[in-house]
Amino acid sequence: MTMNIGTYLKPASLDEAYAALQLEPKAKLLGGGAWLKLVDADLPAAIDLAFLRLSGIKETVEEVRIGAMTTLSEIEASPLFSGLYNGIFRQAIHSVMGPSVRNIATLGGSIMGRFGFSDLLPVLLVLDARLKFFKHPELSIGEFMEMKTPPRDILTQVILPKHKAQGYFHKVTRTALDFALVNVAILRLDSGYRIAVGSRPGAAMLCQKAMNHLAFRPLPDEKTMVEAGAIAAEECRPGSNQRASADYRKQLIETYVERGLREVTRS
Amino acid sequence: MKITMILNGNPKTFDVACGEMLLDTLRNHGLLSVRRGCESTSCGICTVLLDGKPVPSCSVLSVRADGRTVTTVEGIREEAEKLSRHFGEEGADQCGFCNPSLALAVYALKQTNPKATPQEIETWLVGNLCRCSGYQSQHAAIQAYLKEKS
User: Fold this and answer.
1) Domain count, chain B
2) CB distance A2–B40 less than 8 Å?
3) What is the domain range of residue A19?
4) In this complex, is the C-beta atom of A9 within 8 Å of any C-beta atom belonging to chain B?
5) B74, B97, B125 — which closes off a domain?
6) Cα A72 to Cα A103: distance, rounded to the nearest angstrom
């Protein structure tokens, strides 16, 4: 099925792409394109970012910098992520569809789409990823997810701090190709816990109240973990869609937050 | 728009609409082995190799194939026939609709991980749906194909 794209632009530089984006209010940026058909049937103008050399993974002592157009397959293949945070970033990427989709889907596209079904957003939230734009000041992923309208700018890089932390990620799904019924990510840092829930079915969010409940409790007891699960399930206001009811999602969130906390406190 | 790709080893120029998908460009030019399935990246039936990597051609804009290498099952005829023999021996062939996409995915696996374990084969093929085989006989055939000396 051919999409109705009015004008296709293939900018040769970020300056050119940014100028085109500001000039045409209805223009959309093309990332990997894996979910193009889910979003827009008609695009008055499309600005293709595929030729701007925005891909690649660089490591420094404290962080990992990933170009926004790096494909999920390229990230999955990087040895960097198998050990970091118990491998939860790699695990989340691996849970996205099959290899052929991961060969086209990009990290930047997965973020800028703010898709409710995203498996990556909960993990990026607990990792406190930072987003570098061409012009707009840097944003934390948490700030970005809370914005009503994302910046009309080009995401160029995603920065992941190299936390030494225990991580947990679980995608509740029936088959490998399903969108998640719910997905849960948890990170246990020296400074506390970070918990995020996605596929609520709305976009992923941090469970701030549940995180506060666990503050100053490096090793919470069983009762506290159960309470944190219930608080998380309440505060992320799960809804219903064709994949699961709100009540079912609530039970799943309670269960997997509890299980995740047990897992990250085990060692 | 005019695009040029190396299609199955030969340079080919196509005149495409800017919203045209690679699936349509290839099928419109007679490559009907590239099957139309879900058209939403979910079934894997439209898989082709873009620069040697499997991609869902239903979701790749043709303009993005400009200057790149595209391979359909016609471009790996010899390897596809070898795999097909194993499919026959294992009784893995049923309607055959998914065979071209499966052959391309398995060929790509052979290039990157020729000693793939059964678990790795399973993981590699999660995006390639088959609605009639039940997968077991296909997996046995793929294992036999990977063990075969080139």
Assistant:
1) 2
2) no
3) 4-46
4) no
5) B74
6) 7
